[in-house]
Design brief:
By secondary structure, this protein is an alpha/beta fold. The protein folds into two domains: 313 residues, Aminopeptidase; 182 residues, no CATH class. The protein is 33% helix and 24% strand. The chain contains 17 helices and 20 strands. Strands 1, 2, 3, 4, 5, 6, 7, 8 and 10 form a nine-stranded mixed β-sheet that branches. The relative contact order is 0.10. Bound molecules: zinc ion. The site of zinc ion has 3 residues, from loops.
Length: 562
């Protein structure tokens, strides 16, 4: 192979990853030389103004998305560099694309399947290059940083889309609607023999026949395929206690993560995580093997995967109820034959505690518990449609980027709807990815008349993209717009009172509103100690008086039409 077709990784000492500039220039040159194999170009701009690129490889030189989608061709999507400090997928993708260009039999083996890739997604983070941010990782010599230019983790940003970068991704993903996605990573965590570990879309959460296909057919094939390629692979090592000895649990990758987001589109997703303590060269090679294993399986089984996805989308249009939240079944683990190292404990030299370490001279192999069942723990009845009033444009934009079909209210009208009264919200005390995330949400479903205005958005659920709408609009969804704080303003009562005036007025209200008076009597009986507290007394009357009720207060502003 000519030297200029070698990747920066291959030209170096096998412990170096490409820079962003070299990566893009290299693909540009490759596409110029192989215009019938590779189409490569800009798909958007990051928050820091850096171009974001994507590429398409096809065996017949057809790259036009509309043409490919119209023909119903399978799409395999490889995303790389979301965490630029975990870059083996970036370098591996370059070599794979080059091999498609230079090995006709490899290209022909794609058949109808199209290989779509993002060479380096977190472009902002990749420019922030050093060797200091991956604390426990063996190479490469220099690499980019996890945070993008707004210090956000893009692998938590798929739903809230605070970054322009994630918005570009949402639109690209929706446009191509890939059948299978592989988003490449490096892990932190325990020590063990495997170089490659695998996070996949949690099958129960993916749901239905598609989830069962992933669990029973694709995952066993992936593990067998990796073993055959010389890279035995285990599920992502997420120990339920200190070390893998007591078992590991599937990682419940909710929709803020890449594979969880993919599941909202009924796409099978993988986050391969190479082990950070293995040399970069091994991580690179095992990542290439993983992507090729997933791609080969997709090519061979594309018809079945596409049929299952189509069925899942069609079924979603007629569902009577929707799961929106899942939890680990602690009582019924499966098992996995695991190759670990002996966990030992010894006194720390830093403090007075006992520390964990692993003895690599004492490997073991045995079945460990694998907690891989996550039944739904919240399932909700499906409305016929949601109504999103037009002022909630952050929610509407995201629904649009994700291809959710919406209709507009034609003329102002009153409508009888179901809605949620927000009883209580418990938020994190500190910022999480730029938001005070609402961990605990308690709702009460109510019914009433609301004013709809011309131009408000109606989201019918008899559509292929219903799942995205349900999991983002139902406040109890793991990563709902509500939990991310999109509707926080309705949690505040907007008006207040002056106590010396309201003191007299409150007495009149109690006279005028018997229901309020009864509530107040009950409150007094339950809270005798608060009667000496003017603010508590007046607040209670103000909050409960019908006369000064603010209907919008604590009313979740997305409505349901039965
Ligand atoms: Zn990562």
């Amino acid at each position: 192979m000519s030297i200029e077709l070698l990747t920066p990784y291959e030209k170096g000492n096998l412990n170096q990853t490409t820079t962003h500039a070299d990566c893009i220039a290299w693909y540009d040159e490759l596409a110029r030389r192989h215009p019938n194999v590779l189409r490569f170009g800009q798909v958007g701009v990051s928050d820091a103004g850096v171009p974001i690129h994507a590429g398409v490889v096809s065996s017949d030189g057809i790259f036009d998305r509309d043409q490919i989608k119209r023909a119903g061709r399978p799409v395999f999507f490889n995303n790389n560099g979301i965490h630029p400090g975990e870059p083996e997928g970036v370098d591996g993708c370059m070599a794979l694309v080059r091999d498609f260009c230079t090995q006709p039999e490899r290209l022909a083996a794609l058949g109808q399947t199209v290989y779509l890739f993002v060479p380096l997604y977190n472009v902002d983070g990749s420019l922030n290059r050093a060797d200091t941010s991956r604390v426990n990782q063996d190479g490469p010599e220099q690499f980019g940083f996890r945070g993008m230019s707004r210090h956000l983790d893009l692998n938590r940003d798929f739903i809230k889309c605070d970054s322009l970068t994630a918005q570009v991704f949402n639109k690209l993903f929706t446009a191509w609607d890939p059948d299978v996605m592989v988003d490449t990573h490096t892990s932190n965590g325990a020590d063990y023999s495997y170089t490659m570990t695998l996070i996949h879309t949690q099958p129960d959460k993916l749901g239905g026949d598609l989830g069962e296909f992933l669990r029973s057919t694709m995952l066993p094939a992936m593990y067998a395929g990796m073993e055959a390629r010389g890279w035995p692979t285990c599920p992502y090592v997420n120990p339920v206690k200190d070390s893998p000895d007591e078992g590991i649990a599937d990682f419940l990758e909710t929709a803020r993560f890449s594979t969880g987001y993919a599941a909202l589109h009924h796409t099978i997703g993988f986050m391969p995580e190479t082990h950070m303590l293995k040399p970069f060269k091994d991580r690179y090679e095992s990542m290439r093997a993983l992507v090729e294993t997933a791609l080969d399986f997709t090519v061979r089984n594309a018809g079945q995967i596409q049929a299952l996805r189509r069925a899942a989308k069609q079924a979603s249009g007629t569902r009577r109820e929707w799961p929106v939240h899942w939890a680990m079944d602690e009582a019924n683990p499966g098992t996995f034959r695991f190759k670990g190292y002996e966990a030992q404990y010894k006194p720390s030299v830093l403090g007075t505690y006992t520390r964990l370490c692993y003895d690599r001279t004492k490997p073991w192999e045995r079945d460990i518990a694998w907690y891989n069942r996550f039944p739904a723990d919240i399932t909700l009845p499906a409305p016929r449609a949601y109504v999103v009033p037009q002022q909630w444009r952050e929610a509407i934009e995201r629904l649009q980027w994700n291809g959710v079909r919406m209709e507009r209210v034609e003329a102002d009208r009153m409508e009888e709807v179901d809605y949620y009264h927000i009883v209580s919200v418990t938020s994190r005390p500190n910022a999480y990815e730029g938001h005070m995330f609402h961990d605990d949400v308690v709702l009460e479903k109510r019914r009433g008349q609301v004013q709809l205005r011309a131009g408000d958005f109606i989201v019918p659920l008899d559509q292929d993209n219903a799942r995205y709408a349900v999991e983002t609009l139902e406040p109890l969804g793991h990563d709902s717009f509500f939990r991310w704080g999109f509707f926080n303003s309705v949690l505040e009562k907007k008006e207040a009172y002056s106590d010396y005036v309201f003191e007299d007025h409150a007495a009149e209200l109690l006279n005028d509103e018997p229901a309020l008076a009864a509530k107040f009597e009950a409150w007094k009986a339950a809270n005798p100690a608060l009667l000496s507290n003017q603010e508590a007394v007046l607040d209670f009357i103000f909050a409960n008086a019908e006369r000064y009720r603010e209907p919008e207060w604590r009313r979740y502003p997305v409505f349901m039409i039965a």
